[in-house]
Amino acid sequence: MYRTDMYEGILAETVTINGANGDMINAYMARPLGAGPFSAMVLVHHMPGWDEWYREATFKFANHGYVTLTPNLYFRAGHGTPEDVAAKVRGEGGIPDDQAVGDLAGAMIFLRGLPYGTGKVGIFGTCSGGRHAYLAACRVPGFDAIVDCWGGNVVMTPEQLDTKRPVSPLDYTKDLSCPILGLFGNEDKNPTPEQVDQHEAELKKHNKSYEFHRYEGAGHGFFYYQYPAYRQAQAMDGWQKVFAFLEKVLP
Amino acid sequence: MCTMIVEKINVEGSGKGSGGWIKLDQANVSYDHPFNAPFEHALNIDFVNESLGPSARVAVELSEQAARELVRTILAVLDRAEAGGHLERISADSQVNCATQNE
Fold first, then answer.
1. What's the ipTM?
2. How many CB atoms lie within 10 A of CB B16?
3. Residue A115 class from Cβ within 10 Å (0-12 exposed, 13-18 middle, 19+ buried)?
4. In this complex, how many residue pairs, one in chain A and one in chain B, have their CB atoms less than 8 Å apart?
C-alpha cells in the first residue's frame, strides 16, 4: 500500500523478447525501481490491440509492485497505430492460439530471467486476452497465478473450432497448475453467465483453486473507461479483487 | 469478446484515409468489437490496401440496423443506375477475383 512518505519510482519502456518460434517481438515493460525482489506479471492485451489502455494497465501493475510485461501479440501484423494493426488482425480472423501461447511463454521466460524477481510470475488478460491467458496458464508450466477478465470463447463448441483455434480452452482445464481469479459481467454475451457456469463446473471437477466474481449491471469490458461498457463501481471493486488476489497468491 | 466473424473480398476503387486517397484492393467485413462506435459489437468495414501496411485503411463501424439499411440502399442505387444504363463494365481482373472469393 502506497504511503505519502514513501519514495516511489517506476521505469517503463519498450523492450524486445523472444516469442513463439523464437521470433523477436516487442513488449511494453514497467517495473518498480529498486533491488526488489518483485513478483512479475504478464499482461495479455485484448482484441483492440496493444493499445493505450494496456500500456496504462502495465504501469498500474508496476505501481502495485509487480514487474510487468505486456507483449505485442500483433507484432507480426506490421506496425501503425494500435487500431490499424488490430484492424488488420481482425480482418485476418485473429491470431493462432499456438502463436499467442508461444509469445506468452516467451514473456514468462523473459521475466524469470531478470535479476530482481521473486521467482513468481502471474498472468492477466481481458477479452481475447483473458482467453489467451487461460490457454497459457493451462499449457505452459511456470505461471503462478492467472486473472481472467471476461475471457470469451473459453467454452467453444466443435463448430467454432478452426485451424487457428483448434481446441476449446476449457478442454485444457485439467492442466491448469495455478490459482485463477475470474471476473465476469452478468450481461456479457461472450462469455454468457451459462458459459461461466460451465467454466466453473470444469474447474470444480478438476479440483482447481478458483475464485469467480460475477457483477450485476455489467457486461463485457466493464474496466474500459474509454468505452460505454465502463461500469465505475464494478470496475473499482474488480480492481480491488485483482490486487487482493495477487497479494495472496503472488506475494 | 471477439466474435472473429469476418469475410474478405477483393475490391477495386479508392478510399480517403488519414493520409489522403489510397487505391483499395480489399475490404474486410466483420461483426466484432468496434474501436470507436459505442456498441459492444458493430458491423465493421475496413477498406484496405494490403501492400501499403496497416495504416492504409478506411474504416466504418456501423450498427446492425445502419449496416442493413446501407446494404439495401447500395443495391437500390445500383439497380437505378443499371435501369438507367449507367453501369460501367467491370474489368476482367475483378471478375476473376470476385469468382475466386465466391468459391
1. 0.80
2. 10
3. exposed
4. 82
Contact between chains at B59 and A153 (C-beta distance less than 8 A): no
Instruction: Quickly count: other Cβ atoms within 10 Å of residue B8's Cβ.
Output: 17
What Å distances lie between residue A158 and A154, A162, A169, A172, A201, CA to CA?
12, 9, 12, 15, 19
ω before A158 within 30° of 0 (cis)? no
AA letter at B20: G
Inter-chain touch B40–A81, beta carbons under 8 Å: no
CA distances to A144, A152, A173, A209 from A202, rounded to whole Å, are 19, 15, 7, 11
Q: What is the pLDDT of residues A162-203, one digit of tens each?
A: 999 999 999 999 999 999 999 999 999 999 999 999 999 999
Has this prediction a pTM greater than 0.80? yes
Instruction: Give the position of cell 482445464.
Output: A173
* Residue B100 parent element (H or E): helix B92-102
φ/ψ of A184, rounded to 5, equals: -140, 150
Nearest CB partner across the interface for B1, out of A87, A128, A228: A128
